[in-house]
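User: Can you help me understand a structure? I only have the sequence.
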Amino acid sequence: MIVKLIGILGVLVVAVASVVAVAGAGPAAQKHRVVFQVISNGVEQWDAVLGNVENVREAFGTANTEVSVVTHGKGLGMVIAADSKHAEQIKKLSDGGVLFLACENTMKKKKVTKDQLMPFVTTVDSGVAEIVRKQEQGWSYIKSGF
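Assistant: Let's start by predicting it. Here is the structure, written out as C-alpha cells:
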C-alpha cells in the first residue's frame, strides 16, 4: 500500500512539474509575427512606422518578434535609396532581422528598378498579396503611418 502511494505521489509530482514548466514557457516564449503596411509618403509617416516597429520589438523582445515592413504605392519611397531620409535607421532594423519588402507592381508602375532600392530590401510580386499571405499564416497586421 505504501509503495503504491509513493508511486502515485511520484506521478503527481512529475505531472505538476510538467504543468509548471509549460506554464513558465507561456507568453515570454510566444513568437510574435507582425506585418506593417506602408502606403504613405513623407518623413513624418515613416517616422511613425519605424517608431512602431521599434516599439513592438522592444515590448515583445527581439528574440520573440518577427517583423516585416511591406511598402507599396506612395510608401515605396521609404526603401528607395536616393529618396529615403531614414536609410540609416532602416539599415539598423534590417541588420536586426526586420524584413523590408517592396511591391514589384508599384515598382513597375513607378518605373523603379531593384538597383534603386536599398541593397537589403527584398521584393514581392504584390504588396497587398504579401500582406494577405502573412495574415493567412497568422501574422498580426498593422497599417502604420497616417
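Now, to help you interpret it: Confidence is low (pLDDT under 50) at residues 5-26. Helices lie at 2-24, 43-60, 87-95, 104-110, 127-136. Let me know which part you'd like to focus on.
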